[in-house]
UniProtKB/TrEMBL annotation:
Entry protein name: DNA polymerase III subunit delta
Gene3D superfamilies reported in the protein's UniProt record: 1.10.8.60, 1.20.272.10, P-loop containing nucleotide triphosphate hydrolases (3.40.50.300)
GO MF entry, a single one: DNA-directed DNA polymerase activity
Keyword Nucleotidyltransferase attached: yes
The species this protein was found in: Ligilactobacillus murinus
Amino acid sequence: MVTVEKVLNDIEKNQMAPVYLVLGEEQVNAEKIKQKLIANFPEEEREFNIGIYDMEEVTLSTALADAMSVPFFGEKRLVFINRPYFLTGEAKKVKLEHDLDELIAYVNDPEPTTVLVLMAPYAKLDERKKVVKQIKQKAVVVDNSPLTEMAVRKHLLAELAQKGYTIDPRALEILLQRTDANLTAIANELPKLLLVAEDKQITVNEVSAMVSRSLEQNVFDLVELVLQKDTAKALELYRDLLQQKEEPLKINAILEGQFRLLLQVEILQKHGYAQGNIASTLKVHPYRVKLALQKTRVFKRQDLKNAYLGLIHIEERLKTTTQEPELLFQLFMLNFAQKAVVV
């Protein structure tokens, strides 16, 4: 497996492999690879020699037929196969017949004048499948997994510097928090910030005003209030979420998920797992693990367990009774503050 940086450098030098597998969920880097490859083809040839095929819309055979065609008024063809879900264990309701043997045959004997790129925006593939094994043996596999928080910081600061902008340290922290340190999410927010930044300086006020908080982030604040056993403020935030028309079951499900993550992180950390190992084991973004580790250093496992069990009881009541969600949450908070778990 090679890095995105290496592939970009190779393409820059016109050293392109016959087959690439770009594996991972980082959309920004996937787009960089795509555009770098396209830029390597003369503009007048692109319409005739570049094909892009979505496997949820067209058959694999159609894409491979293009890959096996000779270039039209040029030396190379470039074919992208997007969303090859058949490489994963996912079950898709797509009524298309994909001939995987045809793909296996192609990667074992690729067309020398074609660059075939499998754009796989997935965390992992189904390693048991013959087609996956063959592709990993024959193709250049590009590691396009989400960047670490440190790498995201470095990338963002470098991009801002290149554009002549700076960002206040506190504003940077808020931006990372509200985007979960996800490069793709930051890329979506950045144009707005650049537009409103006076004197090319991005401030706390601008990030706070322009980058909205997700339900998950509001619930993350709620987790903090629950653990602090601050019943009044927790209830106030819970009411705010209900007034924003958020579904009680959805709020509760996210709360459950947050406490489950905290418990898992705390247990793995106690067993000697480092932050990166925990993230890969639980298949969550390293930044979420970092925030969870900060909390597990302060709060006891028993408190995490009590809260998690209490939230399961709330879920049961929400599904089986007509009790008001706000009342259920209030009872949960009162009982949790007394270290009870029954609502």
